[in-house]
Amino acid sequence: MKVIRPKRKIKMGEIDYGIFYSVALLLTIGIVMVYSASSYYAMYIDHDSMAYLKKQLISAVVGVIAMAVAMSFDYHKIKKYTVPIMIGCVPLLLAVFLFADTKGAQRWIKIGGFSLQPSEIAKYVVVIFLAMSLELKGEGVKKFTTGIVPYLTVSGFYAALVLSQKNLSIASVIMIVTFIVLFAAGGKLKHLFGIVAPVLVAAAAFFAMSADYRRARLLNFINPWNDAAGNGYQLIQSFYALGAGGITGLGLGQSRQKTLYMPEPHNDFIFSIIGEELGLIGCICIITLFVIFIWRGINVAMKARDTYGTLLAVGITSVIAVQSLINIAVVTGSMPVTGVPLPFISYGGSALVINMAAVGVLLNISRQIEGKEEIRKV
User: Which one of 197, 229, 334, 373 is most buried, by most CB atoms within 10 A?
Assistant: First the structure.
């Protein structure tokens, strides 16, 4: 006679407050700075200085709700929905081509006043796939042909769809995060750094030089003053903003570059407005909050109750870390200009909601760290 044992209920402990408070502060600063950076631009374009603030506030509320929901149920339930989510993401990535482009790029699904950027979803779709599949793969990840190539192929498929939208930056984020998760899963260093890394660098260089506008950005990064009124304009304005801010900044709301000098200052280059208004001190505070988030995210990954939780935490933390690093590097002229928003701070509804939901999953994983200790004692 078969004995049916009741499933053991997973104990849910407290969340990681380091992650929670760092994200809460970044979100609050983001809302304030979106209003400060966009007020003049919004008044000129929409005749309402609070136009972007209102939209960002709505997105923030929805994002907080999404985070609360994501942290309330057992994250292992995501496993059974992984394949449907992966399949559902593909038509969303293709649907963007049914809508009019924005500045030559087709990245958004726009219906009425609502817009969705499917590439933001694709980043996390790849993460949940990698976490689920690599847990099953186990030590098999140490084999290159069957343990590395299949994952690069799947991630490359989603990255290619994103790249077709003229979004090399997010496609690069997907592949970089894939590399990090494979490393965390136990992939051999000779495979990752001897083969995968050089191939990814070569691919990024090829695509960066394959399009005229990308090649122009790359060349202007070396000396933006060669085309100060064209491709180098935005980066130069960023330098002016950061330089004017000095150590302590000009004061909240006192930016000069946001008065139609910096194109759409509330988006990808909002960090330069932060530097202008809050100075080096403000910039260091923002960077410190991201460092705390990354540190606590890694800590959660190391203490997760299982491999799935570890890889999921690594992937979510890596997405936020890579994007924040790229954005700050671009704004400070440390790498060529590319369109990557600063998580939790840059204006953008779908990106904010999806990032907050992902943080909810990360907090969910952190709630089950105590359960891991219980299992070890049994």
Answer: 197
User: How is residue 91 written in tokens?
Assistant: 């038509």
Type and span of the H or E element at 123: helix 118-137
What backbone torsions phi and psi does residue 269 show, to the nearest 5 degrees? -105, 25
216-256 tens-digit pLDDT = 777 777 778 887 777 788 888 888 999 998 999 898 988 88
Rounded alpha-carbon distances, angstroms, from residue 50 to 35, 40, 82, 117, 251: 7, 9, 39, 23, 19
Type of residue at 331: V
Contact 76, 123 (CB under 8 A): no
Bridge partner list, 102:
105
Q: What distance in Å separates the CA atoms of residue 257 and residue 249, rounded to the nearest whole number?
A: 13
pLDDT in tens, 280-329: 999 999 999 999 999 999 999 999 989 999 999 999 999 999 999 999 99
Residues of the chain falling short of pLDDT 50: 1-7, 372-378
* Tokens encoding 47: 């005749």
Q: Return d(Cα 107, Cα 166) in angstroms, integer.
A: 8
Looking up tokens 């499917």 gives: 118
Q: Pull the structure tokens for residue 41.
A: 């631009």
Residue 361 and residue 312 in contact, taking contact as beta carbons nearer than 8 Å: yes
Tokens 């950005």 belong to 217
Rounded to two decimals, the pTM is 0.90
Spell out the residues 6+ positions from residue 17 whose beta carbon is closer than 8 angstroms to its own: none
